[in-house]
Amino acid sequence: IQSPFVEDFLKYTATLQQDNTPLLDILWRYYERNKNYIAAARILDQLARKESVELTLSRRLEYISRAVMYAKSCGSVSSVSGEGEFLHELEEKMEVARIQLSILQGIQSLHHSQHTQQAITELNSKLMDVSQLYGEFADPYNLSECKLSIVHCAGHFDVTLIESLWSEIIEQELQSTLGNDRDTRTQSMRDRLLRLGKLYSRNDSYFPTAYLIKLLEQHSCQLGWDPGFIPDIFHQVGVSYSTLFTLYNNLFEEKDTFWGSVGRPLHVLSVLLALLSAYTANSSLVATKHFSVAIDKYLVELQTLDPSTPDINTLTAGLRNLKRELQRNLDTIK
User: Fold this and answer.
1) How many independent structural domains does the chain possess?
2) Where is the Nucleoporin Nup133/Nup155-like C-terminal domain (predicted)?
3) Between these two residues, 223 and 13, which has the higher pLDDT value?
4) Share above pLDDT 70 across residues of the chain, in percent, rounded to a whole number
5) Element spanning 186, H or E
6) Are residues 62 and 97 in the same domain?
7) Do 176 and 109 reside in the same domain of the chain?
8) CB-CB contact of 123 with 136 (8 Å)
9) Coil/strand/helix, residue 216
10) What angle do CA 131, 135, 139 make, to 5 degrees?
11) How sure is the predictor about 270, in pLDDT bands with cuts at 50, 70 and 90?
12) Which of 246, 279, 305, 314 has the greatest number of CB atoms lying within 10 Å of its CB?
C-alpha cells in the first residue's frame, strides 16, 4: 500500500486503542516494506517496552532483536542524529532482556508455586532493569549464574561478591549431581565450567582463575577426582600451561593446611605432576628449564616428609621420570 495516508491512519488509530499491539505490528511492517528501517526499529522498541500480560518475554526479545537489525540497516548510523545512541540503547536492552529471559527460565525450572507463577507473570509483563532483576528475582530465587551475568553486565566489580557467586555456582552444581556416579558428575562440572569460562575468561575480574582453581581443587581432592581434571578444564577454557603452572606452583608454596586436614597432603603436587606431564606430552610446546628446576624443588620437599605419607613413593617416581623426559626435550632443542 503506497497511500500517503496509511502511516497517519495507523499512528492515529493506535493512539485511540488501549490494546494497540496489532496496529503497531502493522505499522512497523509498513515501515519495513517502505525501507524506513529506523522508524520500524523505533516502533519495535515501543512494542518491546509495552507493559502487557499479553506479550511474552520471548516476543519482547524478538522485537528488540529486530529493532537492532533494522537500526543497523540504516546505512551510516549517525551519532549526530541520535541514531547511533539509539542503536547503543537497543543493544544494551537486548543484553539485559537476555538476562531477564535466563532468570525467567531459571524460575520456570523451580518447583511450581504461587510465588514462582507470580514471578513468571511479572517477568513476562515488561522489560526490567538490572537492579530490579537482581534484587527482586535473581537473588531471592538464588539464581547464581544470573546474578553473575547481571554483575558482569553492569560492570560492577566486587571481589568478595564475585568469588561468593562462583562458590555458589560450584556448590549448586555439586548438589545437583549428588548421587550420580563420578563420571557423570565430572562431565557435568566440565560442561558448566567450559560454558561459563567461555563467557567470562577474557576478564579475570569476573573469572578469578586463582580463586577458582583453589576452590575446585579442594572439591576435587575430597571427591577423589583425577589430578589432571581441573587443569585440563582451565586449559580448554584458554589458560596457558605456563600460567597454570604458575598458579599451581603458588598454591603449592602456600602450604595450606587444608590438604593435610582431608588426608591428602600431596594433592597439589599430584596435580602439578599431571599438569607438567600434559605439558611435556604436547609436542607443540617447548619444555622450559624452570619446570625442571621446580621438579628438583618438589623432590627435595618430598625427601623431608615422613616416608609413610600417602602417595609419596608414587609421586617421587613420577616426578623423577618427568624430569628425565623434560631433560630429553631440552637436549633435543639445544
Assistant:
1) 2
2) 1-306
3) 223
4) 90
5) helix 182-200
6) yes
7) no
8) no
9) helix
10) 125
11) very high
12) 279
Q: What angle do CA 305, 311, 312 make, to 5 degrees?
A: 30
Q: Which domain holds residue 105?
A: 1-156
Residue 64 near residue 94, CB atoms below 8 Å = yes
Task: Verify that 175 and 143 share a domain, yes or no.
Answer: no
Per-residue pLDDT band at 333 (split at 50, 70, 90): low
Same domain, 19 and 60: yes
Do 148 and 5 fall within a single domain?
Answer: yes
- Whole-number Cα distances in Å, 225 to 183, 222, 229, 231: 9, 8, 7, 12
Of the listed ranges 12-26, 27-41, 97-111, the least confidently predicted one is 12-26
Q: What's the chain's average pLDDT?
A: 91
CA 237 to chain centre: 11
CA distances from 332 to 223, 286, 294, 321 (A): 39, 10, 20, 17
Sign of CA dihedral 173, 179, 185, 188: negative
CB-CB neighbours of 57 under 10 Å: 22
Are 230 and 274 found together in one domain? yes
User: For residue 190, how far is the Cα from the chain centroid?
Assistant: 13
Do 182 and 245 have their domain in common? Answer: yes
For CA atoms 267, 273, 276, 281, the dihedral sign is: negative
Full-model pTM: 0.89
Whether 28 has a pLDDT exceeding 60, the answer reads yes
**Do 150 and 259 have their domain in common?**
no
Q: Report how far residue 187's alpha carbon sits from residue 255's, in angstroms, rounded to the nearest whole number.
A: 29
